[in-house]
Every structure is written in structure tokens, then in C-alpha cells.
UniProtKB/TrEMBL annotation, chains A, B, C, D, E, F:
It comes from the Bacteria. GO terms for molecular function: peroxiredoxin activity. This is 4-carboxymuconolactone decarboxylase. Gene3D superfamilies: AhpD-like. Pfam families: CMD. SUPFAM superfamilies: AhpD-like. It comes from Propionispira arboris.
Amino acid sequence: MELNRFEKGLNKLAEVDGNAGEQVIAALDDIAPDLGKYIVEFAFGDIYCRETLDLKEREMITLASLLTLGGCEAQLNVHINGALNVGIAPEKIIEIFIQCIPYTGFPRVLNAVGVARKVFVDRNIRVAKINS
Amino acid sequence: MELNRFEKGLNKLAEVDGNAGEQVIAALDDIAPDLGKYIVEFAFGDIYCRETLDLKEREMITLASLLTLGGCEAQLNVHINGALNVGIAPEKIIEIFIQCIPYTGFPRVLNAVGVARKVFVDRNIRVAKINS
Amino acid sequence: MELNRFEKGLNKLAEVDGNAGEQVIAALDDIAPDLGKYIVEFAFGDIYCRETLDLKEREMITLASLLTLGGCEAQLNVHINGALNVGIAPEKIIEIFIQCIPYTGFPRVLNAVGVARKVFVDRNIRVAKINS
Amino acid sequence: MELNRFEKGLNKLAEVDGNAGEQVIAALDDIAPDLGKYIVEFAFGDIYCRETLDLKEREMITLASLLTLGGCEAQLNVHINGALNVGIAPEKIIEIFIQCIPYTGFPRVLNAVGVARKVFVDRNIRVAKINS
Amino acid sequence: MELNRFEKGLNKLAEVDGNAGEQVIAALDDIAPDLGKYIVEFAFGDIYCRETLDLKEREMITLASLLTLGGCEAQLNVHINGALNVGIAPEKIIEIFIQCIPYTGFPRVLNAVGVARKVFVDRNIRVAKINS
Amino acid sequence: MELNRFEKGLNKLAEVDGNAGEQVIAALDDIAPDLGKYIVEFAFGDIYCRETLDLKEREMITLASLLTLGGCEAQLNVHINGALNVGIAPEKIIEIFIQCIPYTGFPRVLNAVGVARKVFVDRNIRVAKINS
């Protein structure tokens, strides 16, 4: 039986964000449940389930966009975890942030790296040092 | 003989942006030549020459960041051309923009797709229609 | 028979934006048809069809958000027309922009008023002068 | 006797923000008293005292603008309280944020809803669940 | 006789922007005259007339802020002219933009330099080349 | 012997930021050492060492840009300290923020002043009250 958008979205959310994503949705339940419904249905059910880009590429794009927005440290936290979950190495996550420097300047990149530090500590991850 | 940062940057700029990138630098020569020098040395010589991410991934990240910034249509034009130059299919460029919708909303994505339309027309490119 | 999200969205889009909205969607057909589909289904079918706020309130909020984003003059054009279509007086549209001054500063407000000028000229509208 | 801009502003500030607004102004007294003076005189004395839009509409616009700016959680806190003070129902405040989704994407909306949660807890407010 | 805020503002506006500033205000007269009134009274009458920073420093700060906002090319045009009017050398204007690179990235700086080019051409100004 | 870019940058970083700047670089050592290297080499070695603007002017521009970006409170903290270190009076720092009001609106200025308050408390600084 074919899944509806919400079910497809829930599955994709679990695949990318594991528990953290479900927690974001659950935390909305008492204040803005429809916001959670739209994130599941539209962001994950419609967008993340599309072809042409794989999950790693989608997380890479999402991280670049969240860094550039500024002020989205909570979402960067969820998606740095998501990037690790779909198999992007920690060194590659840092490299995604470094790639943004010419386009956003250093402050936004520093703030994103600061979030990555917290996530890596939480997950007991050591970053292999990349020196050019 | 090892190339200096400027020479490495010029080579990388040519590899990614072909003529368009050199035109940006040349256009700066009479007003802010050092700005052009820093773009070549730092953006291309230092950042684009790094390991860990290939050129296609770097252009993908750059496009996501430029879209999110807003107001950077001139730079989106250069980098949509750059993405095509390094072998990213037009359908994939559109997909990168679509991936940003949940993070930036529709206006910024519409504006980026508008720039892509102009680039594709200039380069006589037809986008294979992707319907989900 | 109950309409699906796309049909509900098309109806709402026509109600708010008349021809202009349909033109935005049609213009996407050869380059990013799914982007148009999501705007119709999600922005108009899901969000604009909701209860609790009427169409005038929704357009008021949309105008404030587009002004604040900056660089979204094309979308401001569509929604200034939309605001007029749903019955918001031109003087009220200008007042919405003026209300933003303490939060965004003058440049973004000047740019939005500039778009309003073009729309009012196109639609042969004279703004009743509001002096405090 | 006619009030001057500062007095009109203080009255309007009290009407919208009650104690919270006065606290923002008072907190500036030892570091940037003129900043507080301009907020009272210009934002509240000039802008908020204008005709054509009522206080509820002004708070609606202000909330949309603050959400879209990003990084203005402190001001969102003051104005979510202000919106409640002028009689906007909590469900309507959430709906204002939901209306922004197509224009700002989900992160900025999530961050604004997060501030609303804290305000509602502080004020012992339960949001009537709105499901579409 | 002491000038009121509007008169002080008009004088300051003329001192900084010459004709260009008056044109911005005049152009608002048929659509949003109060917006023009607030720019004269508040931006120029209150803020620009303050002590502690001279006009050159104020224009320097304004240019940095407008560059960083993005999408404010019209206002950058007015204030690059204003900076020249108050005696900031063209080379110094370019240097102000270059100083922003580490904080905003290259795109916003390129766009500001693009506006400067147009202003310098209009005013027949040649920039003395600054090479480091 | 002539210093290389990194050494020039370290010297300039110490001159502007004293210990705080070195701490930012050191804190990056275990997660993104190249990010620290680029800040030292490019931001301080290339940009801050340039002619045409002195250190006070550079810090003034940096503060205006960081305020306008929003969400860069950590960097504002470093550079408010930097501004004090290079001899900009606390009253002048506040005035730089006030100058931004017409261009960014009040929220971003309030947030910057909030960071200044913390820095002044940490450094036992009392601001001479400037009333207009």
C-alpha cells in the first residue's frame, strides 16, 4: 500500500534525523502541531524524498543554507547530527563550512563550527585534523 | 616549480568559471584591483584548491549559500555557469535550489531559478523536466 | 467532490493574485515545474486556505515579511497586487511598510515603497495622502 | 495640553508593552539613554500613534518582521507579550508565524514559535490546538 | 531662532547628500510623504546631527551597514555620493568596502564596488590604484 | 627579515584583540585549525594590515557590519573589546551603534548595545552619558 505524504515524511525524518527530528516535531505538539505536520509532510515527505540528489547532497545543501541564514544554531545542531547520520564524515562537515567563507565571511562560519563542536562532543567524535 | 597562491588561484578560477571569472577580476582592475587579487588568492587559491570536497560539491555549497544570501544574482549567474562548467547537470542545479525551499522559503528560490533561466537561455540549455 | 491540495491552491491563488500568480506558475513550467507545484499546493493550498486569519491579514503579514527579507522586489510586486485584489486600500499598504521602519530601518522600507509606486502606476491608483 | 512626542510615546509604550517595554527603556539608561529616547519618541510616539492601522494590525506586522529578521528573539519576546496585551489571541500569534513559512522557510518560524512557547509558559497560557 | 527637527534635518540632508537626498524625499511626496518626513526628521535631524562622531565617520558607518544589508544598491548610490560630498576620498570608500570582506564575504563587497563604479563614472572620478 | 602573512597576521591580531583573538584561534585548533589559519592570514595579515584606513576606522567599520549581520554577538564581543583596545572610547562605540539605527532598525542596535553592556561590565567601564 502506498504511503501518504505524512507517512513518507516520517520515514524520511527518521532516516535523516533519527530521534532528534522526532523530538522537534513532538515538542511542537502542544503549541503549533500544524507546524510539525508541515515539516513532516512538506520538508521531508515532498522535498527530501525527491530524486536527483541523494541524502548526503541534500544535507550538504541544507547545512550551507542554515549557516548562511545566521541565527539558526538550533537547526544547525539538528542537521549536523543529520549529516553524520547519513554518513557524512565530521571532516567533511567542517569542510562544507569552510567552503562558505568566501560567500558569507568568517562570523557565520565560526558560529556554525561552534555548533559542530558541541555536536561532536555530544557524540564523542574526534575530528581528523585537516591542514592544507 | 611550485605555483604561488595567485597562480594556483588563477588556474582554479579558469577551471571553474572559464572566461566569466576572469572577466569579474578584470572588471575590478580600474577600481579595486586588490579585491580581485583577494578573490583569486583566497577564494580560489586557498579555498577552492582544498581537499576533502571536490569541485562539484564546492559549487553545490556555493550555490546554496548565494541563494540564501539574497541579492546576489550577479554571483549566482557566475556560479550557475561554474556549476555547469564542472559538470553539474542543469536538472541538478534546479534540484539544489528546490532543496533550499524549506530553509529559505519560496522567494529566494524563485529568484535563483530566475537567474538559472537566463543562464540556460544564454547557453542554449533545455532542462529535462523533473516531476515528482 | 472534495478538491485536492493542488485544486484548492489554484483557486486560492486565483482569488489572491488573479492573473499574476498564475503567470508566476506558468513561467516555471519549462524550468522548474515542481517549484510551481509546491507553491500552489503548499503555499496556497495548505497555508493560505487556513482558518484563524483572513486573506487581508495574511497579505499584510506576507508584505511585512517580504519587505524585511530584502531583495524580493519581484515577490513584493505580486503581493502588493494581491493585497489590492483582496481589498486592502493603497494607503493601508503604504502604512504596513511605514510600520516596519523601527524594525528594519529606512532602506528596506524605501525599496518596498518603490515597488508600490510601480504597481500603483500600472493600476492607475492615486494614493490619498496621509499626513500625521 | 498637547503631549510632546516623548509623552505620547511613553503612553503608547505602556498601552502595548506594559511593564516589559518600560524595562527595555530603563535598562538602557546607564549605557545608551538616547537609544531609549528614540525608541519612545520615534517608534512609539511617531509610528505606533499613527492612524490607518490599529494596534493589533501593527503588532501583527511587527511580529512578521521580527521573525523574518532572525536573531531578534529578545524583541520577539517583548512583542509576543505586546500582541497578547492588545488582545491578539495566542492561536492567532501562532497563525501569524505559520503564515510566514512560505516566505522565510521553517527555521525562522521554529525559532519564533520557540519564543512564543516561553512567553505562554510565563503567562500560564494554553494554546487551543488548531489542526487543519 | 532655534530650528525644529525637520529644518535641522533638511540642512543636514543638504550638507551630506546635496541634491540627491532632496530628490529621494521629493520622490516620496506623491506616495508616502510621511516616510520622507521621518527620514528628514529622524535620520538626519536626530541621528546625523549628533555629537561624538563627525560626518565622515557617520558616512563610513552607513556605507558598511548598507553593504552588509545587501539589496540596498539604491541607498549605497546615495551614500557613496554623500561620502564623496563630505570629503571622503574615493580610495577610502573602496577601502571601507574591502574592510568588510572578512565579515560579509565577497559577494556583498563586489555588489557595493559595482555601485561605486557607477557613481565614480557619473562624477568623472578616477580611483588612484591602491595595491598592497 | 620580512614576516610572512601568518606572522604579520598574528602580530596584528595581538595588536587589536589582545588575548581574546588568540583564544578564538586556539579554540579552533582541535576542530577546524585551517579556519583559524585563514582568519590570521587573510583577515588580519592581508586586510587589517592594509593602508588608507587606520585601526580605529577599521574597527568602526567592523562593528557596523557585525551589528547589521545580526546573530553575531560572539564576534561583536571580540570586536567591542578590540575597539576599546585600539583606543575608541566607550561613548564612541555606543555612538557607532546609534548611527546604524536608520539603516538597520532598532532590534539589531539593541542587541549590539546588549553585548557592549556585558563587555563594559567585564572591563569595569562606565559610559559617560551622552544626551542630545
